[in-house]
Every structure is written in structure tokens, then in C-alpha cells.
TrEMBL record:
<keyword id="KW-0812">Transmembrane</keyword>
<keyword id="KW-0732">Signal</keyword>
<keyword id="KW-0998">Cell outer membrane</keyword>
<dbReference type="GO" id="GO:0015562">
    <property type="term" value="F:efflux transmembrane transporter activity"/>
</dbReference>
<keyword id="KW-1134">Transmembrane beta strand</keyword>
<dbReference type="InterPro" id="IPR051906">
    <property type="entry name" value="TolC-like"/>
</dbReference>
<dbReference type="GO" id="GO:0015288">
    <property type="term" value="F:porin activity"/>
</dbReference>
<protein>
    <submittedName>
        <fullName>Outer membrane efflux protein</fullName>
    </submittedName>
</protein>
<dbReference type="GO" id="GO:1990281">
    <property type="term" value="C:efflux pump complex"/>
</dbReference>
<feature type="coiled-coil region">
    <location>
        <begin position="283"/>
        <end position="335"/>
    </location>
</feature>
<dbReference type="GO" id="GO:0009279">
    <property type="term" value="C:cell outer membrane"/>
</dbReference>
<feature type="signal peptide">
    <location>
        <begin position="1"/>
        <end position="27"/>
    </location>
</feature>
<keyword id="KW-0175">Coiled coil</keyword>
<keyword id="KW-0472">Membrane</keyword>
Length: 393
């Protein structure tokens, strides 16, 4: 079963009020201006899809530009070697062999250039995946907080109305100074909550704009659709892990490190054998590191799958909670119309639905990120392109 979450292109359909000490607030409530303001802002704010943002982010990424420059440099180096020696083929190094210094120098250059190009390619792929994950997280966080902000603004507006009513009640002797101070404190707290979340959103938009290379104060209406569809493992867990390890870029980098160490151990200069022992040690160390990396990755994959299953349970529970809250609201609406309950009880039911909707939305966005990471295991266990990037030297 699919559940689709959209961006905050509309406003949350909720009317909040808070009763005073178990009684309903009296006086007609003025229509909320938040929804009208949001609609006007949406009309003037440019829309931005995830795909558009990703394209901008990749074009702006300093890391990707540096990796591309490294690719260009290595390609030029490869062509220079080609011009000098007339071919570009990696020598066989499955067994130890000794060659003279001249052959060793250009052959080592051939191998090093080829290896560096391979590592640079893997590092580029990791950087691309990390950028996608960062952008997904940024989009979902902004949308979640924008929806929360709408709720907080409605709450603050109602708190302000109740405070004004409270001042009237106090003048009539219906409430005490302490009760009025409580109303004022609640209103001030609601304004503070709105202010703090607005600043948080400003920072999030600054981070988004920084990723894309846009003006720091630019705002958008984000268009980001996420569907909740329970992930189905395409094979057995063992088969999935084996397939994942073969295309995991962090593992491929470890395997390339073994090849580098193997070349240094087996392809030797006749004039200099002083590093034989250290080269052998480096080769064995690289093998141990690969084995440990695969074991760690396997554990990470298994844990990630368990977390996916847990998230699916949480989603189903959140759906059930929402359905219950919606049923409570329908019952409350009927009872309110016939005068069986106060406005406070109705408002609590409305608020309960909105809270459950936001809780469900949060789970959907988080699950989408979990699935993305599970499908791209290079992102697991903190693999970092900066630590794995190829050297051009």
C-alpha cells in the first residue's frame, strides 16, 4: 500500500482554539489570516523540484568540480605517457618480477595513473550519492518544519485572541491576575516558538541555497513527492549482501587499495629492493582492511534492513493512530453540533488529527531516506569520499 506525501503547497486545514480553565472561549473568532498569507506567498514564490535542486547542487559542488579536475589531469597524464611509450597497458603483477629502473619508472607511472583514475571514479560516485542524500534530507526537513510552522502560527493567533479576551474577563472580575498572567505567558511562549522555528527555516533555506549556489536569502515553494511503499527485498539477504558488496564504492576502493599494494609488492626495480618487507606488510594490511570492511558493511546492511522493518511497523501504527484520531474528530463534530461537548473538546480532537498527520509525514520522509541508503550501501558506515579520493600525484 502506498502513501504519498507532498510538499507544503497548501496550508494545514485546522482551526485551533484553547479554552480557559475548562470553559469555551466566548466571542466570535476572526478568520485566520495565516492561510491567506500563505496562499499569497505561494503565488509569488518560485517553485523548486528536487530534480531541479539536485542539478543545481551538482553543478555547484566544489567537491565534484575538484574530482572532475583530477579526472582531466589524469587523462592528460595518461596521454603524455602514451606519447612517450606508444601504449598504455597495465603490466601483469600477479607474481614478483624485477625490471630495470627505466622500465620500472614508466610502467609504475602507467599503473599509478590507471589506478588513480579508477579511484577517482569511485570517489565521484560516492560524492554524488552523498549530495543526493543531503538534498533529500534538506528537502524533507524544510517541508516538515514549514508544516509545523503553519500549526504554530495558528496556535499563536488563537493564543493572542484568548489573551485579549482574558484581559476583558479580568476587567469584569471573571478571572484572577494569576490566570491572566498564564494567558499572557502562553501567548508569549507561542510567539517565541514561531520565531525560533522561523529562524530554523531560514538556516535550512540558507543551507539549501548554499548547496545550489543561489542567493542566500532566496525562498521557494518546494515540490517533493514521496511515496510510502514497503520495501521488498529482491532476493535472500545473503544474495543481496553479496551483490551489494560488488558494487559498493567504499568496498571497491578497498579492493583497489589491495591491487595497489599487490603491484608494489610484485613489480620491483632491480636496483632497489629495500622496501620488499614493508610492501609485503602493506599488502597484507590492505587485505585485512578489506575483510574487516566487508564484515562491517554486512552488519550495516543487516541492521539497516531491520530498521526498515521497524519503520514499516511504526508507519502502520501511525496510520492506525491517525484513523483513530479522525474517528474521534467525527464523533466530536457530531456531539458539538448537538451541544454535548464544549468547543475545547472539539478543538482537542482537531489538534489531535493534525498532530497525527504530521507524525505520519515525518515517518514517510524518514523511511524514504532509509530505503535510499539501503539501496546505496556506499552511504552506510560513514564512508567518506574525502578520505577515499584519488591522488593525482
Amino acid at each position: 500500500m502506498k502513501k504519498r506525501m507532498r510538499s507544503g503547497k497548501g496550508t494545514l486545514a485546522i482551526v485551533l482554539s484553547v479554552a480557559l480553565f475548562g470553559t469555551t472561549a466566548y466571542g466570535a473568532q476572526a478568520p485566520s489570516t495565516v492561510e491567506a498569507a500563505a496562499t499569497q506567498a505561494e503565488q509569488t514564490t518560485p517553485h523548486l523540484t528536487y530534480e531541479e535542486a539536485l542539478k543545481k547542487a551538482k553543478n555547484h559542488s566544489v567537491d565534484l568540480r575538484d574530482l572532475q579536475k583530477t579526472t582531466d589531469f589524469l587523462q592528460e597524464s595518461k596521454e603524455d605517457i602514451w606519447d612517450k611509450v606508444g601504449n598504455f597497458s597495465v603490466p601483469i603483477y600477479d607474481y614478483q618480477q624485477w625490471v630495470n629502473d627505466a622500465v620500472f619508472a614508466y610502467t609504475s607511472a602507467i599503473y599509478t595513473t590507471d589506478s588513480s583514475m579508477t579511484k577517482n571514479k569511485y570517489a565521484t560516485q560516492i560524492t554524488n550519492l552523498a549530495l543526493e542524500a543531503t538534498l533529500k534530507s534538506t528537502f524533507s526537513s524544510i517541508i516538515e518544519n514549514e508544516n509545523n510552522l503553519k500549526l504554530l502560527k495558528e496556535t499563536s493567533e488563537i493564543q493572542g485572541t484568548l489573551y485579549e479576551q482574558g484581559k476583558t474577563k479580568f476587567g469584569l472580575g471573571l478571572i484572577s491576575q494569576y490566570q491572566l498572567d498564564q494567558l499572557k505567558a502562553s501567548y508569549e511562549t507561542s510567539k517565541t516558538n514561531v520565531y525560533q522555528l522561523e529562524r530554523t527555516l531560514e538556516q535550512m533555506y540558507m543551507n539549501l541555497n548554499d548547496l545550489m549556489g543561489e542567493a542566500v536569502d532566496k525562498k521557494y515553494t518546494l515540490e517533493y513527492e514521496v511515496e510510502f511503499e514497503p520495501y521488498v527485498l529482491p532476493s535472500s539477504m545473503e544474495a543481496y549482501i553479496n551483490a551489494a558488496l560488488k558494487k559498493d564504492y567504499s568496498i571497491l576502493l578497498k579492493e583497489q587499495a589491495i591491487e595497489d599494494a599487490k603491484f608494489k609488492q610484485n613489480y620491483l626495480s632491480e636496483e632497489d629492493n629495500s622496501n620488499n618487507k614493508s610492501n609485503k606488510f602493506s599488502y597484507e594490511s590492505a587485505q585485512r582492511e578489506l575483510k574487516a570492511a566487508k564484515q562491517d558493511k554486512e552488519i550495516a546492511i543487516r541492521n539497516a534492513y531491520v530498521q526498515l522493518q521497524q519503520a514499516e511497523v511504526n508507519y502502520n501504527q501511525a496510520k492506525a493512530d491517525l484513523a483513530l484520531a479522525q474517528a474521534d474528530l467525527k464523533t466530536a463534530e457530531v456531539n458539538y453540533k448537538v451541544g454535548n461537548i464544549t468547543e475545547l473538546t472539539l478543538t482537542q480532537a482537531q489538534l489531535g488529527v493534525t498532530q497525527k498527520e504530521l507524525a505520519l509525514e515525518k515517518i514517510v520522509f524518514a523511511y524514504d531516506m532509509q530505503v535510499f541508503t539501503f539501496k546505496n550501501t556506499s552511504l552506510m558506515s560513514g564512508s567518506s569520499p574525502s578520505s577515499n579520493s584519488a591522488s593525482a600525484s
